[in-house]
Structure formats: C-alpha cells, structure tokens
Amino acid sequence: MSPLEMALLVHRGEFHLRELEPELPLEKFLKNADPKKTRKFLEKCGKEELERQKELIRKHNVKLVSFWEDDYPQHLREIRYPPAVLFVRGDAELLKEKCVGVVGTRRPTSYGVNVTKRFVKLLSEYFVIVSGMAFGIDSVAHKEALSSGGKTVAVLGTGVDVVYPRSNERLFHEIVKNGCVVSEYPMGTRARKHHFPARNRIIAGLSDAIIVTEAPIKSGALITVKFALESGRDVFAVPGDIDRKTSEGTNYLIKSGAYPLTDEEDLETHFGIRRIASPSLDDDKKKIYDLLRSSPKTVDELVEELGWSVSEVLRVISEMELMGMIWFDGGAYRLLG
Fold first, then answer.
1. Which of 73, 75, 82 has the alpha carbon at shortest distance from 10?
2. Rounded to an integer, what distance in angstroms lies between the CA atom of residue 235 and that of residue 208?
3. Distances in Å between the alpha carbon of 121 and those of 67, 80, 275, 324?
4. Are 81 and 53 in contact (CB under 8 A)?
5. C-alpha triplet 275, 153, 170: angle, nearest 5°
6. Is 187 helix (H, G, I), strand (E, B) or coil?
7. For the chain, which ranges sit under pLDDT 50?
8. E strand or H helix that includes residue 36
9. Given this model, what pLDDT does residue 330 score?
10. Which positions fall inside the DprA winged helix domain (predicted)?
11. pLDDT tens digits for 74-104?
12. With contact defined as beta carbons under 8 Å apart, do 4 and 49 qualify?
C-alpha cells in the first residue's frame, strides 16, 4: 500500500495503525479486513477521491512519510498513538532534528507575549520550535523563531493545504518557506473541534520538551502537557500572577511538578547550552542592563538608582527598546532575552 492509501484507510475507513498491513496491495488488504470498516472506506474513498488526493499532493508539493519508513521521526514513533502517515509541506528534515514545543493560550496578555518571545529567541538558536499555529502564544512562538533566524514546525488540525485560522495565511506561507507544516489529515481536511486535541499529541511527540508560557486551567496547552508527560517529555511552565486567569494553568503545572521557568539560565542549565554573547553596550546602557538583571524597574526607580534626569533615562531606555533588549509591561521595564 502507498502512504496515501494508508492515510485514507485511517481517516476514511477508521482503521487503526495496528490493523494496517503496508506490505499488501490495497485490494488484497480490503478482502480480509473488517467488513464494516471496508464498507465505510469504499463509500467515502473511491477512485475519484484517490485521484483528487494525488493531484492536491502534487499541486502543493507535499511529502508523505509513513510510520514504517526510516524518515519517520523516531520521537514520534514512541508515543502511545503515533499517526500512521504524516503529510509534510516544507523541509521534512526538520522533523528529525532536536525540537522544543512552545504552547499556550489563544488570548495572551502582553506578559505572555513577551516571555514567549524572550525564551523562543534563545531556544531557536539551538532547537526547532514546534507549535500549533493557533492564535496567541502559538503564533507568537512561530513568528519569533522565524524573526530570530531559526526554524519552526507548525502541526495542523487540518490538511496541509488548508490555512486555519485564515488570518494566519501569511504566517502559514512563511513557515512552509522557512520551516515546515505537518498534519496527519488527508488533503482538503477542514478544521473540526476534535482534530486539535489529537494534533496536540503530535506536538508533544515531536518535541524533546514542552514549554507553556501562559495558559488558563482549561486550555489545549494542558492537553499537550498530558501527552508530553505520557511520553516522558520534560515540561516547563512560566509562573504568572496568582489572580490572573491566564496564569492559572501554568501555576497549576508548577505545583504539579513542572519545571518553573523564570529566566534564560533555567534553559541553559537544563539543556546544557550557552548563549551567544550580547552585543557590546556603552556605559549608560550597561548600567541600566545591570539594574534590570536584578528586577524590573519603573522609570522613577531608574532615575533614583542612577541619579540621572528623567530625560536621560528615557533616552537610553528608548534606544534599548529599539535594540530589542527590554520591554515595558505592568508599569516597569524588563529585560528581553
């Protein structure tokens, strides 16, 4: 059987991976297969559907990788329910590289956005960043990986020819060009609610570790964590305000044993990586940088501790913001990366 035929058996006939016999021709397999599933497959997938799928695969330059091929990611092979076939657009080799999954809420605060950028900026120097291309933290993680010169993989709950959400169309094509999009679903598959929890197991399976930067207690990100823990992956969570809904999930994960992620040193220590040295700073910027290393500061606090005028402080922090070194959140300036 071809990988396409196997994918259609799973998603049109509802066969399980363990039932497939890839060494057999499709016709011979169906003769001895479960009659109910065979009937369902044949009703939904005649010769016309096979040809339509083949045409879409050619049109979008899609690579299919089955569970039984050497190109199938080893990490993904180890999860409880590995997909039978992957549909891949872009650089399929990225699926075999070291990956870190970054996930979170679809409605992040500025805090969630900025801590995601901060940690992805570091991680993308050493790992492929994996996420689900949803609104919010997923999109921030993909965009930051690309803008930092790294690579990223988007795992979809649709076919790899279907952009969802539509507002991420530009991001989708950037990922295809500079990373890859991957799905277990046949071409043309539209978004359905149950696809996304299933998609999350692939994010967990591809990743060496999962990082949750901001998430409420009822979040798809926590479903990804569940799959990650089942597969023996490390889980990190960024702590947040105890009275903020979007931090309830991450704070719960930390209480439950996830690694608390509070700065870059946590990642450097865990993964054994060393950061590339920061660009040299003039004396004024270095003074502010050193103060912000200890804790976030307001403008008034910087004025008081440095003994500078307000205009001097504002001039230097404006330059540092333009350099992408600091960001303003909750009334105070913080280091970014």
1. 82
2. 9
3. 32, 31, 10, 11
4. no
5. 105
6. coil
7. 276
8. helix 35-44
9. 74
10. 277-326
11. 999 999 999 999 999 999 999 999 999 999 9
12. no
